[in-house]
Amino acid sequence: MTPQSDEDEVWRQIVASFNDTAERDSADQPWPDSENVPAEPQARRVVRPAETEHDDDHAEAAADGDEDEGHFEPPPPPPLPKLDLVTKVAWVALFGGPAYLLVAAMADWQMEGWALFTAVAAFIGGFVALVVRMGDGPPGDSGWDDGAVL
Q1: CA–CA distance, 108 with 144 (Å, rounded to integer)
Q2: Using one digit for the tens of pLDDT, what is the confidence trace for 26-47?
Q3: Which of the ends of the chain has fewer CB neighbours closer than 10 A, N or C?
Q4: What are the CA-CA distances from residue 121 to residues 80, 91, 108, 124, 134 (Å)?
Q5: Beta carbons within 8 Å of 118's beta carbon, 6+ residues apart
Q6: CB atoms within 10 A of CB 98
Q7: Residues 86, 102: Cα–Cα separation, whole Å
Q8: DSSP assignment letter at 36
Q9: What global pTM score does this model have?
Q10: What angle do CA 9, 11, 15 make, to 5 degrees?
Q11: What is the dihedral of CA 3, 4, 5, 6, to 10 degrees?
């Protein structure tokens, strides 16, 4: 017999015994009866910590707002960069062209050929202007080696 035929035989046995029931009794289970799924519910006991002087001081400090431990307040975000006129016009063209077409279609306006051409050209021109102005070089303040900072 080859190793492949042995493996095939093992798989046939696994598939043939897939729907067979287990031969074990519930008494032969390897775990205690307390862990069986239909176990009886056990009585529960609630344990509360004893109050101490430290707890009272902490409660007073929290009420006063003096101690703000564990509360994270992120720093304010940096201001948005100032955009030059060309970038502002490109963004307006990028969103303004499709917005005009959408409003005109929803309002069922009769669109002239030049208006349609202008809206599509504004969208394409705004996109191209933004892509061209993106810049693909490293930032100017990256230093001489442009590597990781440890």
Answers
A1: 58
A2: 566 677 767 766 645 666 777 7
A3: C
A4: 28, 13, 21, 5, 20
A5: 97
A6: 14
A7: 24
A8: S
A9: 0.42
A10: 120
A11: 50
